Amino acid sequence: MENKVQYDGIAKTLHWLIAVLVILLLLAGGGLEDLPVEEKTQVVMGHSGLGTLVLLLMMIRLAWRFTHRPPQPVAMAAWQLKVSVIVHRLFYVLVILQPVFGIGQAMFVDYSVVAFGVIDYSALAISSESMAKIFHVAHGTNATLLMLLVLLHAGGALAHHFYHKDMVLRRMLPYGRVPKE
Ligand code: HEM
Questions:
Q1: Into how many domains does the chain fold?
Q2: What CA–CA distances, in Å, run from 150 to 20, 147, 153, 154?
Q3: Which pTM does this prediction carry?
């Protein structure tokens, strides 16, 4: 069987596309709740559209991951390998939950949420203060956990690249050059 040393093009594209979208949404999400309602409705139109795109891309990514074998792990300490497996699995869970909680919130808030001006989430349910609150807390808490995970993940990748000087980061880079084993 072929021994892959790199992630394939689809895995790399999905990884970086989702990473850019999630980081953008995390950064731009701060301060959203304090905006005046007209402005918030406008901003959330784009926010919810991009978030819905993340959910769609994660479904494709999950399907790709289940049907395509990733490269063998790079040689590293057993504890590092364990932590990286946990972090990667947590990413799948949190990045899927984030837009799901967002959609829950969008369904119940008392202003209109129409993703990209096309998907009218507000039409799916009657607004409810308590339900909106539950999803608001879930969406905000999950966002904080996601930020911490992004920092841990990026820190780990940079440590591998600059300190251990191995191929962990390079094999996920768009034009990363990895020597054949
Ligand atoms: C990976 C995708 C997403 C990320 C990273 C993200 C991130 C965030 C963050 C950081 C906030 C501010 C939270 C706070 O401080 O309370 C926020 C607010 C919000 N998000 Fe998302 N979000 C995502 C997807 C979605 C989706 C798909 C929707 C709806 C369809 C959505 C709807 C909302 C709404 C309505 C608010 C504002 C709530 C308010 O204060 O009225 N989000 N989001």
A1: 1
A2: 11, 5, 5, 6
A3: 0.93
